[in-house]
Amino acid sequence: MEASISRFGADGPSDARQVRSRKALSDALLALLEEKPFDQLTIREISARAGIGYATFFRHYPDKESLLSDVASEEITDLLARASPLLLGIDSLEPAHALCTHVAEHRALWSALLTGGAAGIVRDEFIRQARALAAGGTRKPPSWLPSDLAVVHGAGGTLDLLAWWLAQDTDYPAGQIAEILDRLIIAPVVDKPTPAPAR
Known about the structure:
- By secondary structure, this protein is mainly alpha-helical.
- It has 2 domains: about 55 residues, Homeodomain-like (Arc Repressor Mutant, subunit A, Orthogonal Bundle), CATH 1.10.10.60; about 120 residues.
- About 70% of the residues lie in helices and about 0% in strands.
- Helix 2 packs across helix 5.
């Protein structure tokens, strides 16, 4: 797989038919990830689900990992949009709960992205996008914490916690993971008092 995620909007096709084919492939991959792990998917299955020819797949992507990269880039942007209120608001528990609920609702996809072979690339891209988002923000970490380290810790820690959660045999509820995220990762980064545990 490539060293970084290709951004669909930046280097993707502009021809309407090519855009439709890529969208169909992305949608097919997302649907198939709900049914089985990424490493069990074949390009033939993805192409058939997308309603395009097998050879057409290779006009858009050299392999299924490159398709996953495009899908991951879009999903990371969406997840980061959900995560940004964690760092911007006083009450970070509510956005943490919304973030964890979203991941739980798309468990198969996020399991593929965070616990499969693409995990390192997804993590790097998430941190890259978080850095870009933080550069335009106004909220600063506590004075003792370098800003870039706060972003790396907040973004990386969030993904690490989500990956741990998705890999567990025990089905922890989204609310419990949200509380852990808020107390363990977010509170120290935004210098907010650590809340008492819920009983």
